[in-house]
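agent> fetching stored inputs for the pyridoxal-5'-phosphate docking request
agent> found them:
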Amino acid sequence: MTLRALAPSGVPFSLGDIVQGLLAAVDGERSMTRFRDQVAARFGKRHVRFFSSGRGAVSAGLSALHARFPARDEVVIPAYTSFSVASAVVHAGLKVRLYDVDPETLGPVPESLERALGDRSLCLMVCHLFGCPADMDMAREMAGRYGVPLFDDAAQAMGAAWKGKQAGTFGDIGLFSLSRGKNISAVDGGILVTDEDWLAEGLDALAPPAPSMRGKVKLWLTALALCVLMHPRLYWIPNSLPFLKLGESHFDPDFGVTALTPFQAGLGMRMLRRLDRINAGRGSVAVQWMNVLNGRKFPSLPEGSDSVWLRLPLLDSGPGDVMKEYGVVRSYPTGLHEIEALRPHLAGDGTYPGAERLARSLVTLPTQGYVTGQDIEHVARAMGGGAV
Ligand SMILES: Cc1ncc(COP(=O)(O)O)c(C=O)c1O
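agent> prediction call returned; pasting tokens
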């Protein structure tokens, strides 16, 4: 067992962050308002709503859309994405309609997307996977052509941009996640942004309850654990506990939704201030990986996309490339169409070769702040490649 281990993703909290969170908890509602104003200013959106998780936010957003368009019950989502997205659709009592993902760019395949859209589409969701922005001109054109609202899922891409405009700000409603493996974190959390008054009102009607005292204490303790255990000298501890299921994606529509807490708003405010610095750090680690593994295959991003490389996808991996102790892990194990428990909730059928190829051949390389040049060289050597 090695005593150095890297998390595949994540942002460590400092003790200062936790103190700030506790002070915000004392400040209560005022902290929530301040965080809301900061998010609104950063993303240029009039309405901001918080939830205990990204999937809770997606479910609420979909329910608000469905209240407005009750005859539409299909949510059009990529066949290769976080299982949480499908979980949220089913949580909201809706059907999943899939489109395929291009295995080179990770964005939607236009023909497949067009086949998925129709009279029953409640919205088109686009996910900017691993921080890589999808072609939003195409997505907007397609959503407009079919008169379908656009749900811009930037859970993995806070701070990324498409042609200079931030991911999450396209379309009718946008999502950011504050869970522990995301661009910035508040232990957990989801943010919806919109300029539509009717959507904001719909979301207010669905406002979730505050968490229990037990839930709040759990958040404080998890923040402390993340502060200590994400360090490479200690990460082997959570990494060797299989019941924590770190980094695994699960289909589980049976989740609870509560409000974000002022403690989390305090963490979120600290992190939002560091977002650009964190993203720049990830970007430079990604460049180092690409230089060292220069014969290997990475996403070819369309012109105009400015990725934040939450993790760096390696597209031509084999089984020997997975190195869990160095945070080099497979991402989603299958396409969503291959999840047995999701089958009853799927609308229509189709083939998704791009999603299948990505599930088979994609691993992600860590770009989080603890990755060193030595780690990169070590992994590259073990992969037998690159200019080491
Ligand atoms: C693309 C995408 N959307 C939504 C979510 C849900 O976010 P959360 O983990 O905060 O529930 C995730 C989580 O991984 C995600 O990757």
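agent> quick read of the result: Residues 262-292 form the longest helix (31 residues).
agent> awaiting further instructions
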